[in-house]
Structures are given as C-alpha cells and as structure tokens.
Amino acid sequence: MELYSYYRSSASYRVRIALNIKGLDYHYHGIHLVKNGGEQHTPEYKALNPQEQVPTLIDGDFTLTQSMAILEYLEEKYPQPAILPKGLEERAYVRQLAQICVADIHPVNNLKILMHLSGEFGITQNQKMDWYHKWIRLGFNATETLLERSPFRTGAYCCGDTVTMADMCLVPQVYNARRYDMDMTAWPLISEIEQACLKLETFISASPEKQPDTPEDHSAPFMKGLVSNG
C-alpha cells in the first residue's frame, strides 16, 4: 500500500490516522504542496490524481483519491478495528460531525483558496487570517453544540469510547486552528476530545511533526510562505 501525502495536509492526516488504527503498513511518498510551484502539479502526479491534490492511496492495482472515500474504502475492505459505530443513528451522527470539518470548514480554507484570495483579490495577511478564523469559528460552534446535545457522546471521543471517523477529521482541524493562534477555550468538548486522541499512538505517529517529509522549520507560522493545510 502506498500513500501520497503532505505532512501538513489535513486530508492526508485523516488518512494516516485511519491507516494506523487499521494496522495497515504503507509506503509514504511526500508531495510538497508549495515547493517548486507545488509538486502536486507535476505531470507524473497528475496522472495519479487528476485533481492535483493529496492524499492519493494505492492499494495493489487500485488507486483512490479523496480522504473520505479512502476512509470508507478502508472501513469496508479492512473492517476491524472499526472506525464507524454499529448503530445506524450513531454512524449518521459520526458522518455528520466529519462532514462539518471536511465539507464546510476545510474546503474554504484550503491552500488554493487562500492563494486565490491573495493573488486574484489582493487581500492582506490580516484579512486572510480573519477569513480562516471565521470558518473555523462557525464550524466549531456547530460541532460543540452537536457534541453537547448528542446522546452518543458518552465517552472520551466524539462517539463513546472508540475512535471514529469524526475524531479523525476533527483533530487535524483543531491542529490547524491552533496553528492559526485560535483560542480554543470557547470549545471545551472539542478540546477534550482532541487531547484524548493525542494520547493515542495512532494519532501521535500520524501527526504532521512525525512524517518523513516534515522539514526542520515546520513550526514556522502558517501564513509565512503559505504552507498548506492541504
């Protein structure tokens, strides 16, 4: 199994967590989203992923892109340990939380969006920061409310005492929020879940700091050089 990834890509981060939880070995290929104009735009990589994004997973003769499609594929092909709960309503609840991150927060804060805002519309760094904070705030407000109301939030994670897709999507988004200097005190449940997850080796080894393509200066501010969250 092969994974084309970028160390700070939120989408790749989700998949790395899932692969770790499933206990699946994979070969890591680093795709730098900024260097040399973006390695995702090379003809060789575009042949693998026509969207010119990460991640891309190759499992034997099968190539798959889009992080959520990859997570669902891994769950169906390698069902144990499960990353979706058994109950119909619980599974829908987990997917709901995951989609807030992957469909509502992440896309409008992606590298190509930020570059378009600065390149085509000439917005300032402060305006870009305000843009990023707005979508994080809206998404986290909704997520926190759903966690407060849910009868399924009975353990350390988004749904009980077992890590699910919701946690895999939430933790990378919190990672990005912290890099943007967001004060997380407004979302105590999200913060508790993040901290519980970050005690697990499956999350620790999937973190941006632990990847083969992590540069020595990876702690530099996000806005400097537009280092992407993927």
Chart the SSEs and their pairings.
Blueprint lengths: L1 E4 L4 H13 L4 E4 L12 H6 L7 E4 L2 E4 L1 H11 L10 H18 L5 H10 L4 H25 L15 H15 L8 H10 L3 H4 L26
Parallel strand pairs: 1-2
Antiparallel strand pairs: 1-3, 3-4
Helix pairs in contact: 1-3, 1-7, 4-6, 4-7, 7-8
- Provide the low-confidence segments as ranges: 220-229
Number of helices: 9
Number of strands: 4
Largest sheet: spatial strand order: 2-1-3-4
* Class based on secondary structure composition and strand pairing: alpha+beta
| Mean pLDDT across all amino acids | 92
Provide the β-strand percentage band: 5-15%
Helix and strand run:
EHEHEEHHHHHHH
CATH topology of the largest domain: Glutathione S-transferase Yfyf (Class Pi), Chain A, domain 2
Q: Radius of gyration over alpha carbons? A: 17 Å
Q: Any idea what the shape is?
A: globular
Domains counted in the coordinates: how many? 2
Q: Specify the CATH architecture of the largest domain.
A: Up-down Bundle
Helix content: 40-55%
Distance between the termini: 21 Å
